[in-house]
Design brief:
single chain; Serine Threonine Protein Phosphatase 5, Tetratricopeptide repeat; Phosphatidylinositol 3-kinase Catalytic Subunit, Chain A, Domain 5; three-stranded antiparallel β-sheet; globular
Length: 730
């Protein structure tokens, strides 16, 4: 139906001038006929008069009466003027119709391109080859694609400006979204920016319009239009935080006021996700707006205050030992932390001291067991230290601020493998109660020496009715490792998970929680019901494909098909994220396999511009080894593998509209000194997202990435290297 309508609009061109003008002639024809009849009557009357009077022009009364001649000329001029106006109206109507027609055809062509790409996302597949349309529809589709290509590549700058003006006349909202829909042409964007700044009240209800309103020049010159920003519609918290970053735009009091108003309008737990970016915004906060907001939101939520303090502690020093002070952040963050502590109420202070004291004891175990020899001695030391921990009621794990800690598994202490450090794993019995309820419980608990557990919440902790909310949570505690890079990667994964869910894509991601609490210290939530590919290789001495057949049955069995489905939906999601973030060091120790067949990637120590071996970027964009491909059919033409490719393409397509959000998230972290940033992070990330490409072009781009990674010898070579160096099976 859409193709047919587009085709009818396209074929209408040859009828525009003849049909439209013809119709107008028929409409105004009566008027012209009256004028013609009037002139005819005048001529007949004059003829009769001259015949009766023996007519001689030189002797007539009109020859000596200039007024009579002038009157006849005036009538003719008025008639000509009226005809010119009618002709002008015809031309204006045709021009107006042509402009609207161009907009409709262009927008429809984009929509058709998107729908056809989603219908047949892989190269070589067309709706005609798939039997989804006939030859006539296929020709219409080709015409629409050609129109889309011409619009994108052949439209001149002057035409883009005219189209932007016309779209604005129709609807300012249409003009605001026109660059995104059609083509981010510099001329088009510049004209939309000009229109937005000239008429800000027409679009101030659109949050996205702020991107066209603000510019470096107007902020530096403090133009008179800037105060309109104070009444602009609320944007997202991330966009508001980006206004505090000098890398995005120059800092201005009005942008800071607007950003602060936006952040204050959201509930405290909505800002919880962006705490790393919020703390980094203090780096550029010469005006003090961010610092005041941090104090304000810390009074609104104790859990947010705790998370902010932990993150500030991790960013006040440049080394993992907490000795070298950050020359910028230390002096700015220390007063803010002191202010937060001073503003705490007595109950809030008790909650704060109890939580931080409990967590310090847990974290210090890593330092206590480090001197012991690896193996049984270190494990015994870990169990002994864990047995000495005094459990305070009303506490929680920093990585899970939605659940109260009820108990500790004193026998769960397990030192982890590490060359020079001593991370360890422990399990905690927790009760999920939500952020708001946990905060209430935390404030209600009194000192353990003076209280009696009479509150209804405490009595309910062991009730059988609430067993569904009580579970064991495993966590890894690290000392001497900077976890901030993992936090950023997991933020992106969490953002993508939300995008996939909103888009209705059948993709799986598990953004486990990581919190950095001090320089080189952090807590990492363990992935439940999963083992690393490394562990499976050591236990089974077989590849993953045979492990799947042994665990789930033959390839024709329902359990195997379900496991393969789970594998593909998670494999596609992590493959696209791995490409966009350039996540490296993907050996089998950093890939988890769930009991249901899902894979989960962990440990993001190398990404963006950093990679093992001196940043040589040896590994391909995706890890598609023989065992992974075998699970998905064994060859590129296999139906399961083609489904994997389709999911990768669709995941890439739904992520691209969030290019700016992803860039804002990363941009605020560029000055942290993390090793993954080496100067070109944003430019390279933007290139990988292909913001200028059409849907079909983006699909072909992602397909090419998959094809380059398919059974790439560098993947196997890296696994062989890891086996030789660290005995990690492959």
């Amino acid at each position: 139906m859409l193709l047919k309508f587009w085709s009818l609009m396209l074929s209408d061109r040859k009828y525009i001038k003849t049909q439209v003008v013809g119709d107008m002639d028929s409409i105004v024809g009566d008027t012209n006929q009256h004028i013609n009849n009037y002139h005819a009557d005048m001529r007949s009357m004059t003829s009769e008069y001259t015949r009766a009077s023996n007519y001689n022009p030189s002797n007539t009364w009109t020859a000596g009466n200039p007024l009579a001649v002038q009157g006849a000329g005036t009538l003719t001029k008025r008639s000509a003027s009226r005809n010119q106006k009618l002709a002008s109206n015809h031309e204006n109507l045709v021009k107006d119709y042509s402009k609207k027609r161009w907009l409709i055809l262009s927008l429809l062509a984009v929509e058709i391109d998107m729908m056809m790409t989603w219908l047949s996302p892989l190269e070589g597949e067309t709706p005609l080859s798939l039997g989804l349309m006939g030859k006539e529809e296929a020709k219409q589709l080709t015409d629409a694609a050609k129109w889309r290509e011409d619009v994108q590549n052949r439209t001149q700058p002057k035409q883009w400006k005219e189209n932007a003006k016309h779209a604005w006349e129709i609807s300012p909202t249409l003009a605001i979204f026109l660059p995104t829909w059609l083509n981010n042409s510099l001329s088009l964007v510049a004209e939309v920016c000009r229109l937005t700044r000239t008429n800000p009240t027409s679009v101030c209800h659109i949050p996205q319009a702020i991107d066209y309103f603000l510019s470096d020049e107007m902020l530096e010159k403090d133009t008179p239009e800037l105060p309109h920003l104070l009444t602009w519609a609320r944007c997202s918290p991330l966009r508001a935080l980006s206004l505090f970053c000098k890398r995005t735009l120059p800092i201005h009091p009005l942008t800071a006021q607007y950003a602060t108003r936006v952040l204050n309008s959201y509930p405290a737990d909505a800002v919880l996700f962006y705490i790393p970016q919020l703390v980094q915004a203090v780096r550029y906060d010469d005006l003090g707006y961010v610092q005041e907001f941090i104090k304000s939101i810390s009074q609104r939520s104790n859990l947010v205050a705790h998370q902010i303090i932990w993150n500030m502690e991790a960013n006040m020093y440049t080394d993992e030992e907490g000795v070298e002070k950050d020359p910028v952040m230390y002096d700015k963050l220390l007063p803010v932390r002191k202010s937060i502590e001073e503003l705490l109420s007595p109950a809030a202070r008790n909650f704060y001291e109890r939580e931080f004291s409990f967590f310090k004891e847990i974290t210090d175990i890593s330092g206590r067991i480090k001197p012991f020899e690896k193996g049984k001695k270190r494990k015994d030391a870990c169990l002994e230290a864990l047995a000495e921990i005094k459990l305070e009621q009303g506490c929680y794990l920093p990585s899970n601020p939605e659940a109260l800690v009820l108990d500790i598994d004193r026998f769960s202490g397990q030192p982890m493998q590490s060359a020079a450090k001593a991370p360890y794993l422990a399990k905690f019995k927790v009760k999920k109660c939500g952020i708001s309820d946990l905060e209430k419980f935390g404030l209600q608990y009194e000192d353990a020496n003076t209280r009696s557990p009479t509150s209804q919440e405490e009595k309910g902790h062991g009730n059988g009715d609430e067993l569904g909310d009580i579970y064991w949570q495993a966590a890894i505690f690290k000392v001497g490792d900077d976890c901030r890079q993992d936090i950023l990667a997991l933020q992106v994964i969490s953002l993508f998970k939300d995008v996939f869910e909103q888009s209705g894509l059948d993709l799986y991601l598990f953004p486990y929680k990581v919190v950095s609490t001090k320089p080189g210290c952090g807590v990492i939530e363990c992935v439940p019901d999963a083992k690393s590919r490394d562990q499976l290789g050591r236990r089974t001495d077989t590849d993953l494909f045979n492990y799947f057949k042994k665990k789930y049955g033959d390839e024709t069995s329902t359990s195997f098909k379900n496991a393969r489905r789970n594998f593909i939906t998670s494999m596609a999601a992590y493959s696209v994220i791995g490409f966009l973030l350039q996540i490296k060091d993907r050996h089998n120790g950093n890939i988890m396999v769930g009991d249901d067949g899902h894979i989960i990637h962990i440990d993001f120590g190398f990404m963006f511009e950093s990679s093992p071996g001196g940043n040589m970027a040896f590994e391909p964009d995706m890890k598609l080894t023989t065992e992974f491909v075998d699970i998905m059919g064994g060859k590129m033409e296999a139906e399961p593998f083609r489904w994997f490719m389709e999911l990768c393409v669709k995941a890439f397509l739904v992520i691209r509209p969030y290019t700016n959000s992803l860039i804002y998230l990363v941009q605020l972290m560029l000055d942290t000194g993390l090793p993954c940033f080496r100067g070109q992070t944003i430019d390279l990330l933007r290139q990988r997202l292909q913001p200028q490409a059409s849907e079909r072009e983006a699909a072909l781009f992602m397909t090419a990435v998959i094809q380059r990674s398919f059974l790439n010898f560098r993947t196997r070579a890296y696994d062989m290297l890891q086996y030789a160096q660290n005995k990690i099976p492959y």
